[in-house]
Description:
Elements: E1 2-7, E2 10-15, H1 24-38, E3 45-49, E4 54-56, H2 61-66, H3 71-86, E5 92-96, E6 99-101, H4 103-108, E7 113-117, E8 123-124, H5 127-130, H6 136-145, H7 148-157, E9 160-161, H8 163-168, E10 174-176, H9 181-192, H10 197-217
Parallel strand pairs: 2-3, 3-5, 4-6, 5-7, 6-8, 7-10
Antiparallel strand pairs: 1-2, 8-9
Amino acid sequence: MIELTRKDDVFIATMNKNDNRFNPESLSAISEVLDEVESASTPSALVVTGTDKFFSNGLDLEAAQSGRADFGEIVRGAQALMARTLLFGRPTVAAINGHCFAAAALWSLCFDLSVMRKDRGFWCLPEVDIGFGFTPGMHQLITARLDPRTAHIAVVTGRRFGGVEARDMGIVDDAEAELEVLERAVELAAANADKPTAILSDMKSQRYRQVAEALLAAGD
């Protein structure tokens, strides 16, 4: 489900199950990865990526509809993941290798930096088209990480942004060709891996504590 490797100071977590949707099983696996990175005794950073044409398609609605998982539990788990990533005490980079939709797009905003594939795949908040609203915490996250015009377009129109447009609109930090996405993400992570953990945690908390609290306060 998730393969964790390490290249010098950079942990690389590769999600590799279908379209990498969030459900109790996958959220638990991601949490275990964060635990391992957080417990590293040496300076380190984290890169998260997907496989093939998917970074992640967000919440596992099929699991909820079939009764295999409770929808509220999935939402709460996804928001807890967003909050934890937003405040994570190590540098984080999302290597968006393909489609990044809905809750996964929100999660990508929680990383310190992000690199997106420019020749295939979309970043999208489709909730307006599929009949789902955002929780207050999600709205706060969007407001904190996107400029007002970009946030308006993304939320109100459900527009699909390719990598280059996502970069130009400030959604991601860089856009690269397929084979260069992970390489660039690792490069960015390595350049920041030596940041003092305590200082980094404090700075993130000062900036995003209220967003994280809102994400944790209302999961349904």
